[in-house]
Design goal:
Layout: E1 4-10, E2 14-21, H1 23-34, H2 36-45, E3 48-51, E4 56-59, H3 63-68
Parallel strand pairs: 1-4
Antiparallel strand pairs: 1-2, 3-4
Length: 74
């Protein structure tokens, strides 16, 4: 299967394009950036949404609230 172009729209911040990627590449990127626990909780809370039809992953600003209120060991 040929890879496609995905992008991440950080609402209120910036838009990042990833040429020649699949959705799994974007999921791994965000998991590495925020950590798996934050990524999973953000998906559940709707702070991260995936629009597969347009190949865009949206990261909403309240992900920072999720990060600030989680008991994380850094």
């Amino acid at each position: 299967m040929e890879k496609q172009n995905y992008s991440i729209h950080y609402i209120g911040s910036h838009y990042q394009e990833f040429p020649n990627t699949d959705l799994i590449d974007i999921v791994w990127h965000l998991g590495a950036k925020y950590g798996g626990k934050v990524y999973n909780e953000s998906i559940k809370a709707g702070a991260i949404t995936i629009d597969e039809a347009n190949r865009v992953v949206v990261v909403r600003p309240y992900i920072n609230h999720i990060i600030a209120n989680m008991d994380l060991v850094l």
